[in-house]
Amino acid sequence: MSILKNSYGVSIGFEPKVGKWSLMDKLAGSTLERKENPLADLIELTPIEKLLKKPLKLDETDETEIKPRTLSARSKSKIRKKVIAFARQAKKLSFVTLTFVNKVTDREAIKALGAFLDNVNKRSKDFQYLWVAEKQTKNKVFKDNIHFHLITNKFWDINRWWGYWLEVQKNQGIVPRNEDFKPSSAFDVKVINAANIKGVANYITKYITKNTDEFRCMIWNCSRKISQLYTDFYSDMDFLTGLKKLEEMQLLEGKIKTYEQDHCQIHLIPLNHITTRLYEKIDEKNKIVWQMENPKKKKK
What region does 253 belong to: left with phi over 0, alpha with psi -120 to 50, or beta? Predict the structure, then answer.
């Protein structure tokens, strides 16, 4: 008998010789499941903060020494699952696009993003985010310029934060060719209906599915609380059998698509108000995680 790894809209059935039955009924996908680092209490920097601690070399040749990175299929899947888990806990979400007023290197861009997020975090209560980098292929002026897409739980005062994003760029030496040029498109915000799980998944995946761009910096990241959210649970094949019965009753609003892979089968399941109930095991666990105080932020 096989074991299934289930996430929102995706079930992976492993062959018996590959699947570990010790995982049965367990949850996965959270950084809380990682082995604790004995020095964890001494480490308080996020990945972005660690990056910002490194000196920025202005010589373009230095950046070319960094091995190009691309979004792997595994990363794309992880981003999708984290976004959905995030949406299942946050009541309101916003989709933010940050672009630059001039040509920038990837390292300059990531440093500016880090400064911006750090400032927002200091001025916002329980600010949570996930961001993904993308190249502007349609920008003829700044060809292949990097920009960022963020999903956050924050309401944005556009006039305030648009101006601040331009100020951050200026402080980093990123200025427009024309001093009076203040593009409103540099800071774009759209409200997302967090209750529409299918819509939320589609919102971010359309930006990452075909993302084959190469970057010389981190390509995506998320806040610690989102990283701690669970995204998967293990079960026996009865879970898939139940889904197939719903399909026979025409309650899936679509069909289960199955793809054969080495040592496993990938089953893509339509997401709707019926199928999302099957993932409540993840949601209930994440409710507890979402209410946890960040152990890194100790009260003085």
Answer: left
CA 190 vs. chain centroid, Å, equals: 17
Of 45, 59, 165, nearest in space to 113 by CA = 165
Residue 5, classed as helix, strand or coil, is: strand
Residue 260, pLDDT above cutoff 50: yes
Neighbours of 244 (CB within 10 A): 13
Collect all residues with Cβ–Cβ distance below 8 Å to 46 and sequence separation of at least 6. 224
**Token pair recorded at residue 10:** 């995706």
What does the alpha-carbon distance between residue 273 and residue 3 come to, in Å, rounded to a whole number? 25
DSSP 230-253: --EEEEETHHHHHHHHHHHTT-SS
The predicted model scores a pTM of: 0.84
| pLDDT tens string 175-189 | 987 766 667 789 999
Q: How far is CA 165 from CA 47, 50, 116, 183, 186, in A?
A: 21, 21, 7, 11, 8
* Per-residue pLDDT at 296 exceeds 70: no
Residue type, 289: V
243: left (phi over 0), alpha (psi -120 to 50) or beta: alpha
Strands of 63-216 (E only): list them: 93-98, 129-136, 145-152, 187-192
